[in-house]
Amino acid sequence: MQILVAGGAGYIGSHTCTALLEAGHRVIAADNLCNSKAETIIKVEHIAGKDMVFYEIDVTDTASVDTVFANHEIDGVIHFAGFKAVGESVEKPLDYYYNNIVSTMVLSRACMKYGVGKFVFSSSATVYGENQVPFVETMDLLPTTNPYGETKAVSERILTDAARANPGFKVSLLRYFNPVGAHESGLIGESPNGIPNNLMPFITQVVKGKLDRLQIFGNDYPTIDGTGVRDYIHVMDLAEGHVSALDHLTEGVHIYNLGTGQGTSVLQLVRAFEEAIGVEVPFEIVTRRPGDIAECYADVSKAQEELGWTARRDIIAMCRDAWRFENSYSD
Ligand code: NAD
Ligand code: UFG
Fold first, then answer.
1. Under CATH, to which class is 2-183+232-259 assigned?
2. What's the pLDDT tens digit per position in 160-174?
């Protein structure tokens, strides 16, 4: 198939382009590079040993998106393009609502206009809010406490309504848990701007000596050791999940959790990193981060049964690959 990957130069998008090329698909990436670099596209081509087409465009711009659809016979769209920082979304709600929702509107309308029948969307476990773990796809979505989460819930709604009204439009809504790690080559990975918000890049930067020590946000949660529990998933497993979702996409709307189903606490991740790399991770316990929940992990049985997909890489591989990338890229 020929797949348009919106946000294809970004963290999850670039790994998914690699997986798509390796699975034999042709890839057109579209990205405005607001949170990524053009050289990532060249690295993806190098890893896969195949070329892809790249458009530096903003996918909220209807005319630019129209040009891409007019120039290529597109079979499916994977939509990664969006802003993703929860804290920033509270500061800049209108930017988040505009970018994340208008991009979904523009891409799905182009699909209608050009008869493109497959759409895979990057949603997030954040839509489950404070439901009881493990999170199951059938649960009611709980209002999230931040605009970012709302943009995911609204985009899910828009795509669901579009699929109901247009039976040829097949939609897969993928709810990611906590993507970490990097491609095994060390060529592509996650390189956040400034001080990282997320745990894994924070740990790698502490061990690299860029940051002093890890702050663990709270050790008084009702969890195994008091620290927050998350379902970390290797970004290449996540990338392969997208290929499976595309391959198995049938009529209607399908929602899948993409996680491992395993909860790991902050302290357990720190210990796994120390074991994988053979270093000590200096840390201190500080107060809880506002908005954090105690536990977030997936029930992954639906993706296993319907997509034949399961996450294969363990927490040690996630740490090792994150560290390899931290060591190989220069700021
Ligand atoms: P990322 O920022 O690395 O990638 C997003 C890419 O989209 C970037 O390359 C950026 O330049 C591009 N982009 C943003 N707005 C655009 C626009 N209007 N037009 C064209 N390009 C645009 O983020 P990521 O971690 O790869 O996340 C990808 C998607 O997955 C996002 O929608 C995010 O909300 C979702 N998601 C991420 C996580 C996570 O923890 N990383 C978890 C759940 C869901
Ligand atoms: N944490 C620390 N110290 C840090 C950073 C994080 O203790 O410096 C803790 C958090 O309190 C939490 C855990 O590590 O318990 C994971 O935090 P992350 O910031 O890495 O990830 P979140 O679970 O908060 O959020 C991520 C993405 C969201 C997405 C969500 C889906 O950032 O965009 O996963 O589960 F919606």
1. alpha beta
2. 999 999 999 999 999
Q: Is 148 a catalytic residue?
A: yes
Which residue has the least CA distance to atom 34 on ligand 1? 84
Nearest Cα neighbor of 154 from 178, 186, 126 is: 126
CA 196 from chain center: how many Å? 16
Q: Is the CB of 12 under 6 A from ligand 1?
A: yes
Q: Could you state, in order of their start, the residue ranges of all structural domains in the chain?
A: 2-183+232-259
Residue 103 has pLDDT above 70, yes or no: yes
Q: Indicate the pTM of the whole model.
A: 0.98
Q: Which ligand is nearest to the CA of 177?
A: 2
Give CA angle at 259 (5, 242), nearest 5°: 25
Q: Which of 48, 67, 47 has its CA nearest to residue 59? A: 67
Nearest Cα residue to 158 out of 142, 169, 168, 147: 169
pLDDT digits (tens, 9 = 90+) for 206-242: 999 999 999 999 999 999 999 999 999 999 999 999 9
